[in-house]
Specification:
Helix content is about 80%, strand content about 0%. About 5% of the residues have low confidence. Helix 2 packs across helix 8, helix 3 runs antiparallel to helix 8 and helix 5 runs antiparallel to helix 9. The protein has one domain. The protein has about 200 residues and is mainly alpha-helical.
Length: about 200
């Protein structure tokens, strides 16, 4: 029974992580520039935030959920500004010469940035709450063990997606020369900044 909930959580986490948004573009760009470890660590930051939101939805933490949804204006404002900054920084950055350039402190920053960006997207908690409720997976009956299995599955599903993505993109890295990587930076920067501008323009 618990394994079934773990598998359900895995599928939910994988499904929510898979659509390519600003985090996906950022992970692809970091993988191409700095290697698989950079892309994977960046993805794990998003997976950790997904797990937190999955925990809020799965354990039925209504107060926290309402607070996040109610404060979505400020979350989207902060997230939009940070995306614009990250987009400009990505556009202007020079590609790394070697994957080893992504050192421990750099990896920590990559993890933190995607973790922060995912947390500032209030639609994530709405998505998890809707999916959990639609499948009858909320823990209103107080079964916290079931919720724990679901949240574990969400993290594993999301992390698996980033592992697959960084692995596949990493295989292509050797085919990119410095000039090609520079264009990856420019295109990625424009896309990421566009997501930020969209978030800011949609504020009400």
């Amino acid at each position: 029974m618990d394994i079934n909930f773990l598998l359900r959580g895995f599928i939910i986490g994988l499904s929510i992580a898979a659509p390519v948004g600003p985090i996906g573009v950022l992970c692809i760009r970091r993988t191409l520039n700095n290697g698989r470890a950079a892309g994977l660590v960046s993805g794990l930051g998003a997976a950790s935030a997904d797990a937190i939101y999955g925990c809020i939805a799965g354990f039925g933490l209504t107060f926290v959920s309402n607070f996040l949804v109610g404060g979505q204006f400020w979350l989207r404002l902060i997230g939009g500004i940070f995306l614009c900054y990250l987009g400009v920084k990505t556009f202007l950055s020079k590609p790394a010469d070697q994957a080893a350039a992504a050192k421990a402190n750099g990896l920590a920053g990559m993890y933190a940035s995607t973790f922060f960006l995912t947390l500032t997207n209030p639609m994530t908690i709405i998505s998890f709450a809707a999916v959990f409720a639609g499948l009858g997976l909320t823990s209103s009956n107080g079964n916290f063990a079931t919720a724990a299995w679901l949240v574990s599955g969400v993290f594993l599903g999301s992390a698996s997606w980033w592992l697959i993505l960084s692995g596949l993109v990493g295989l292509l890295r050797a085919r990119f020369q410095a000039r090609g990587l520079q264009w990856v930076n420019r295109i990625s920067g424009l896309i990421i900044a566009s997501f930020g501008l969209f978030a800011l323009l949609s504020l009400k």
